[in-house]
Amino acid sequence: xxxxxxxxxxxxxxxxxxxxxxxxxxxxxxxxxxxxxxxxxxxxxxxxxxxxxxxxxxxxxxxxxxxxxxxxxxxxxxxxxxxxxxxxxxxxxxxxxxxxxxxxxxxxxxxxxxxxxxxxxxxxxxxxxxxxxxxxxxxxxxxxxxxxxxxxxxxxxxxxxxxxxxxxxxxxxxxxxxxxxxxxxxxxxxxxxxxxxxxxxxxxxxxxxxxxxxxxxxxxxxxxxxxxxxxxxxxxxxxxxxxxxxxxxxxxxxxxxxxxxxxxxxxxxxxxxxxxxxxxxxxxxxxxxxxxxxxxxxxxxxxxxxxxxxxxxxxxxxxxxxxxxxxxxxxxxxxxxxxxxxxxxxxxxxxxxxxxxxx
Length: 359
Description:
single chain; 5% helix; 359 residues
């Protein structure tokens, strides 16, 4: 008996993608047994589906299938396909199995960093030719398993929602050891300074470490969406690191518009500018110009005392120009936002008249 060898390498996506594959591949064994009655004499020696059972992350696993030509005529492999784009096969197209030949197909699975059920199918499309007739058929093989993670971190996504306070907001994630009972956290990093992670001592009576994730909106004066990643580095060889996705919408307690005032040299005389201050809480404001060329002419607040409008006059500076600021002190009347008061400075620039340009 002649035996031909070929290599099939199957890369399987685990986790969410594996769950999708698991849905349509349910009852894989019974379906493949029905499908593999090709009628051209290509048969599987042994099981059509091999179950690796519980496996671990980032491993390479191999199982060798054997198919044989039980017909009297030759069988040619004319095409091969896999159940997902992540599956890579060696080129078996064109291989011919003579009557009585066997073909050994090693199938290697890389489990990746996911967890949960994984499964994949590979199909060989074949053609049998004889003096009387030409027949076509296919045969499908399956592999499956369940990835047991070295450890898991939950949650994997922390959504801080809308944050109105400049004070840090905290959430907690938990690391639980699974296959790797000796896992330890070595370092925690963030790719965005608005988020920070720190190891917290385990609760008395528990072995699981906790990670405190903090969001700080900072001193920005504008609403913004913030995204970042917390990376947890461990001593696990199976899964050296994992990540927590973080997001927040920061709505500052004080929003000022415009953030700066610039008066060009060609605008002459006294210039009136309006500054709008919005606060998330009931508030009152006071204005300090600290500049002889800047004067406050009006200040108005809405009925809820959350919207304030300030009109200031930038006096003519005899073409010399100046740089100063308008200082606005905000006091929260109920003291419910972070601190009792906040101070915002609006830079003011009046450009000097260019030389040679008349008034």
